[in-house]
Amino acid sequence: MIKNQEKLTAIVENYANTTIREVATQYDASEQFPQAEWDYLVNLGILYMVVEPSESLIPSYKAFIRLIRIISKQFPALGSILLTQASYAIWPLFQFGTAAQKARYLEPLLKGEIFGSFAANEIDSGSNLQQMETIALETAEGWIITGEKAFISNAPISTLFSVVSKTRSLKGEEGFGVFLIDRDTEGLTVGPLENKMGIKSLPVAGVSLKSVFVPHTALLGDVMQGLKQVQSVLNRNRLAISAQAIGIAQGALDRGLEYVSFERNIGKRLIDLKTNQYRLADVQTKILATRAFLLQTLDEAPDDTQRVAMIKLAASDLAIDVTETIINVTGGYGYMRNNEIERFVRDAKITAIYGGSSDTQRYIIAEPWRLKS
Q1: Residue 74, SS3?
Q2: Is the keyword Oxidoreductase assigned to this protein (predicted)?
Q3: Is the model's pTM score more than 0.70?
């Protein structure tokens, strides 16, 4: 494990620009999990950056976010796998888990020996807790949980599920909780692998819970503070998705520039056309501006839900707009499956969906104005 952040970043960037770039399209075509690349990265210790002890966790986490952007420039699906493990499995346990919960799960998650999933999303309500149908009923011995979760990242390979649920205590008090549930728990079933438009190497499936019994010790942090916990987790996830989206935009631009710069036997290069120069200049400017906004948010307000929603919205819009522009600039070439550009177009769309849709981010941004008296 490499502890020097600058050295680690340089190694990961070189690995991403060489090995990962070479295999990304093959993985996209086969829809296989990138096990060798996963093993290499976790053995470097990059997941420890999420929990590295320091006076402030932000410097280390900021470096991890940078790695998500770097990896996503070449292979966005691998970025998704990493950010899911970091923000949906490791972060909630590190931030809110009891000593016993951390002792059992944290180290295997950090080493990449096991995978974890955050089971919040439902088919009708998304990640809206107020509309969630999953319910946990307290008994004298523990909790009985029933519900259906949809489109859960890493679910097909996960050993640990952090299940978000409405709760009803023995006293009749209602609230929300996050429950740590092992895959082999009776009543928990992982559905078939979903067939997706993009991010094809990220395994996604539904999770069914039918009268799943867990002891009281399964409640994350041993407290019913699900609203607070989920919001913290979503903020971390959205920051990572923002980095992924910026990486996707830059990756698409890099590939577009390679194509338009080719020397042609007849006529000018595409980059010699002023219209293309102007469009690509706008693209690079927007990428750097959005990247600066992300860095500012990480420095100043990583826990400000409204600010986090703004950067997530801006970054996902950027990824979609940039990949569309690159397709338009490169024409038929960019549309064909024998190059990497169309993969980035498909992969970009998910950034406006998972972690909360773009309209959800707009609602979060506007909510303080609506509530202001």
Answers
A1: coil
A2: yes
A3: yes
